[in-house]
Amino acid sequence: MNSNFSRNPVLLIHGIFRKSGIFHKMSAYLRDLGWSVYSLDLSPHWGNASIDELAQQMVDYIDKNFEPQQPLDIVGLSMGGLVTRYYLQRLGGINRVQRFIAISSPHNGTWMAYTLWGKGCVQMRPGSAFLEDLNRDADLLAKLNFTSIWTDWDFIIVPASSSQISAAKEVKVSVFAHAMMVRHDRSLKAVAEALSEPLQNPN
Questions:
Q1: pLDDT tens-digit profile of 129-178?
Q2: Is 180 a domain residue?
Q3: Looking at the whole model, is its pTM more than 0.90?
Q4: Between the CA of residue 107 and those of 9, 30, 33, 137, 190, what are the distances in Å?
Q5: Rounded distance between C-alpha atoms, residue 8 and residue 73, angstroms
Q6: Does the residue 157 lie in any domain?
Q7: Which residue range is the domain that position 171 belongs to?
Q8: What is the pLDDT of residues 65-92, one digit of tens each?
Q9: Who's near 108: CB < 8 A, 6+ residues apart?
Q10: 8 A C-beta contact, residue 79 and residue 19
Q11: Domain-located, residue 94
Q12: Count of helix runs (H) and strand runs (E) in the chain
């Protein structure tokens, strides 16, 4: 791990069905390594709110908790990765975020989203108008240190390869099951390494 870098505050964005408590182990791990770690509870978190609505909650939280000139690093789990992408690509976040780590995020949708009918779930279906629009200028994310961490053994993101996106550095970990991606030692190590990378394009 590179020690010659300044640690930005890290904001953790949870996914569908879960709240920020899912990051309990990751938060403690990163704090032990010297990061300031923040998280918020998106509401509602059952997929019935649209991803763009949830991204506005990110904006409000960031505006309230950080000075305008404070650069940030963001970790987004699953749907939280798409919420973060909307913040970055559509709400100006790309101008202040330096590192973005998506963990098991359905950048190209997941077939599991067909099992529910909320606005956010419809947006996460493969080929949705929302994803088509967001992926049209996904290359914008190459301005950041963008890392996508995913596993073949993911049964929520179907197919698991939906977590691949060309703008990101890809880190594939051997972790069994979606929920373990924020708890397993391999994932935690991968997140810390991504947060430690020197900036390719400092803002």
A1: 999 999 999 999 999 999 999 999 998 999 999 999 999 999 999 998 88
A2: yes
A3: yes
A4: 25, 25, 29, 12, 19
A5: 6
A6: yes
A7: 10-195
A8: 999 999 999 999 999 999 999 999 999 9
A9: 126, 131, 135, 161, 162, 164, 165
A10: no
A11: yes
A12: 6, 6
